[in-house]
Automatic annotation (TrEMBL):
Protein name: Shikimate kinase
Similarity remark: Belongs to the shikimate kinase family.
BP terms from Gene Ontology: amino acid biosynthetic process; aromatic amino acid family biosynthetic process; chorismate biosynthetic process
A Pfam family this chain is assigned to: SKI
Any one Gene Ontology molecular-function term assigned to this protein's record: ATP binding
Residues that coordinate or bind ATP: 12-17, 119
Manner of cofactor binding, per the entry note: Binds 1 Mg(2+) ion per subunit.
Biological source species: Priestia veravalensis
Assembly and interaction partners: Monomer.
Protein residues bound to Mg(2+): 16
Length: 170
């Protein structure tokens, strides 16, 4: 099993945290596409959105993911908006094993205060608007090979469930 494992799901669900645990357990390279874009631009995501705009970020996201998904023995954690683009969904489903991380809105709400400062998409929105975004976004995450509900699991346990799936699949 050497295919790239792609983690998708709404912001704050745990893609970056679980991706790191998963890569360590599999001895795969870990790449977070937001961190990759931030390093390349020398700016935080929030500043990229503010200075260059969301369309610019989405274009960078597409270029970055299209290239990285071709790698082997890699865990690729995407940003929560990446699957808005059909081209990203298609390339990830074709070249990678796509794992959708899912969390209830009640569970997610507990993380809101931690997420607000670093997630530009949440800024200036009321809780009702955020809840609407949470549910509206769910449709794009239905493109996957496997879904893991993470509410009652630690990052390590989620990683173990993903490993069980990918080993069975191959
Ligand atoms: N399974 C989990 N249980 C509890 N907290 C978690 C879990 N996964 C992630 N977190 C916490 O949720 C927050 C967002 O995690 P992060 O990995 O940045 O999400 P994402 O990359 O999907 O936006 C962090 O504070 C992280 O520690
Ligand atoms: O959902 C989104 O549109 C975004 C999610 C973020 O990543 P996380 O899902 O890792 O928070 C990051 O890519 C950017 O702030 C936009
Ligand atoms: Mg992340």
């Amino acid at each position: 099993m050497d295919q790239t494992i792609v983690l998708v799901g709404f912001m704050g669900v745990g893609k970056t945290t679980i991706g790191q645990a998963l890569a360590r357990k599999l001895d795969f390279q870990f790449i977070d596409t937001d961190q990759r874009i931030e390093a390349e631009m020398g700016m935080q995501t929030t500043d990229i959105f503010r200075v260059h705009g969301e369309a610019f970020f989405r274009q960078k996201e597409k270029e970055t993911i299209t290239q990285l998904v071709k790698k082997k023995k890699t865990v690729l954690s995407l940003g929560g908006g990446a699957f808005l683009q059909a081209a990203i969904r298609d390339t990830c489903l074709q070249d990678g094993i796509v794992i959708c991380l899912s969390l209830s809105f009640d569970g997610w709400k507990e993380r809101l205060d931690d997420l607000l400062p670093t997630r530009p998409v949440l800024q200036g929105k009321s809780l009702v608007e955020i809840e609407e975004l949470f549910y509206n976004r769910q449709a794009i995450y239905q493109s996957h090979h496997k879904k893991v509900v993470t509410d009652a699991l630690t990052p390590e346990e989620v990683a173990d469930e993903i490993i069980e799936f990918v080993l069975k699949k191959n």
